[in-house]
Amino acid sequence: MDELTAGLFNPFASEEVAPPNSSHWEAKRRLAEAVRQLNDLLVSTVASDAELAQASAQVEALNRTLADTPRLHGTLAYLKSGEHGHYGEINHELNAVGGQSNPLAPGLNMWLDGNRAYGTVRCGLAYEGPPGFVHGGFVAAIFDQFLGMAQVAGGQPGMTGTLTVRYLRPTPLNTELKLSAQLSRAEDRKTLVSGELRAGGEITATAEGLFVRPSRGMAAMAEMAVGNSGQ
Ligand SMILES: CCCCCCCC(=O)SCCNC(=O)CCNC(=O)[C@H](O)C(C)(C)COP(=O)(O)OP(=O)(O)OC[C@H]1O[C@@H](n2cnc3c(N)ncnc32)[C@H](O)[C@@H]1OP(=O)(O)O
């Protein structure tokens, strides 16, 4: 393992969501949950125009306050600060799909048990695609992240090369969804993982992911990323 992937998988050692490793992440998880609720409320409220304008002004004021605080742009900046844990912990907080402190992430919980991986997730109204059901792009994103975690059992974690999702039936919103995956093959730099997503015991989608460990190593991806974080 290199610098980027070292320690990445500790948060997935058990079914319990790994607790925040500092008061900073604890506070940020609380804020992230509030923003998730805000997102849910935003898409569902039919408040008056005046109420919406007032809410906008309040959120805009909060944005100005946070914009004036010290900021770190991207996971690598957090890593370099040396104050926010190792990469695995930072990724566990900020990842776009699995991050506990990222309100974009739907609250995906994942854990490994030998060669098998398990997970749960619940997608609220903000994830609606077809009426009452989860947007297919988010189903794919959940699989990408989940299979990406499951591949570590192969010992050569890499980037998603190919992800194939088969949508068998619509995946319901506001329902506990269960994920499971297993390693199909791990050879050289390539790891093949397959998984399924269930709602109420029924499989709604299956997926297969081929992960490729970059020839230049995962740390080289970090070098390529310099300048991408919008500073
Ligand atoms: C531990 C971290 C967890 C990460 C979870 C990941 C979640 C993500 O969303 S990752 C983001 C999405 N993915 C990406 O952005 C990846 C972008 N692509 C790349 O960076 C590169 O193309 C990468 C790393 C996939 C392969 O590059 P490189 O190492 O140069 O591959 P290369 O040496 O040419 O090929 C190695 C082998 O893999 C195969 N391969 C390469 N790319 C792919 C691909 N996209 N699909 C299938 N097979 C591929 C090649 O055919 C070759 O096979 P063989 O050895 O049998 O000839």
TrEMBL record:
Cell membrane in keyword set: yes
Keywords per UniProt: Apoptosis, Cell membrane, Cell projection, Cytoplasm, Fatty acid metabolism, Hydrolase, Lipid metabolism, Membrane, Transit peptide
Catalytic reaction equation(s): tetradecanoyl-CoA + H2O = tetradecanoate + CoA + H(+); dodecanoyl-CoA + H2O = dodecanoate + CoA + H(+); octanoyl-CoA + H2O = octanoate + CoA + H(+); (5Z,8Z,11Z,14Z)-eicosatetraenoyl-CoA + H2O = (5Z,8Z,11Z,14Z)-eicosatetraenoate + CoA + H(+)
CDD domains assigned to the protein according to its UniProt record, in alphabetical order: PaaI_thioesterase
Molecular function GO terms recorded: thiolester hydrolase activity
EC number, UniProt record: 3.1.2.2
Protein name, per record: Acyl-coenzyme A thioesterase THEM4
Membrane-protein topology: Peripheral membrane protein
Domain Thioesterase: 132-202
GO cellular component: cytoplasm; membrane
Pfam (any one): 4HBT
Natural source organism: Parahaliea mediterranea
Keyword Transferase found: no
PANTHER family: ACYL-COENZYME A THIOESTERASE THEM4
Enzyme's top EC category: hydrolase
Compartments reported by the entry: Cell projection, Ruffle membrane; Cytoplasm; Membrane
Lineage: Bacteria, Pseudomonadati, Pseudomonadota, Gammaproteobacteria, Cellvibrionales
